[in-house]
Amino acid sequence: MRIALIGFMGCGKTTIGKLLAERLNYKFIDTDSEIEKKTGLTIPEIFKKHGEKFFREKEREVLIDILKEDNIVIATGGGLPAYKDNMEVLNENALTIYLDTDFETLWNRISKDKNRPLVKKGKESIQELYNLRKPFYKLSKIIVAQKENESPEKLAETILEKIKKTQRKI
């Protein structure tokens, strides 16, 4: 089985992904980390030197490669589902799980992070981006609403329960 975590930057895909992979004894893969390995550049460097379009193309290449593996938990980049037909590809090849988090919570988490190049555009611009991407996220097979102050461990347990219910229906 392949599990792909979907959601806006700062929703906890990497943290939750590592917990799920550990509990399922799966391999954890972060698409951003894979892009950095493939290009030899950090995400901010890629954006600065080559721009967002180049980044999105590399992200798609990495996604296609990752989906050849099995027994994996994937933390996708926040923009990945909204680019080309990536969300369709994910839904065809993985159990997609949207970590639904309200914008204010996300903004509080990401606004001070220097490693997020898009944050430099400001809150209104990021809110717009959030609103544009949300319809793609909602195409996920499972949607998990994060509760305020819910621990990553508790959220991971909730997701595991939903995965088990989904698997029983198949």
Write a structural description.
The protein is an alpha/beta fold and 170 residues long. It has a single domain, classed as P-loop containing nucleotide triphosphate hydrolases (Rossmann fold), CATH 3.40.50.300. Helix content is 55%, strand content 14%. Helix 1 (13-24) packs across helix 7 (152-169) and helix 2 crosses helix 3. 33% of the residues are buried. The mean pLDDT is 92.
Keywords:
alpha/beta, 5-stranded parallel β-sheet, magnesium, nucleotide-binding, amino-acid biosynthesis
Using the alpha-carbon principal axes, give the shape.
globular
Count all strands and give the number: 5
- Counted by DSSP, the helix tally is 7
- The share of residues in extended strands comes to 5-15%
Strand order of the largest sheet: 2-3-1-4-5
Computed over alpha carbons, the radius of gyration is: 15 Å
Q: Which structural class do the helices and strands define? A: alpha/beta
Taking pLDDT < 50 over at least 5 consecutive residues as the criterion, the unreliable ranges are none
Instruction: Let me know the average pLDDT.
Output: 92
What is the annotated CATH architecture?
A: 3-Layer(aba) Sandwich
The residue fraction in helices comes out at 55-70%
CATH class: Alpha Beta
How many domain regions? 1
Q: Give the CATH topology.
A: Rossmann fold
Distance between the amino and carboxyl termini: 12 Å
- What's the CATH H-level homologous superfamily? P-loop containing nucleotide triphosphate hydrolases
Largest sheet: 5 strands, parallel
SSE arrangement, N to C: EHEHHEHEHHEH
Family: Belongs to the shikimate kinase family.
Binding site for Mg(2+): 14
Pathway: Metabolic intermediate biosynthesis; chorismate biosynthesis; chorismate from D-erythrose 4-phosphate and phosphoenolpyruvate: step 5/7
EC number: 2.7.1.71
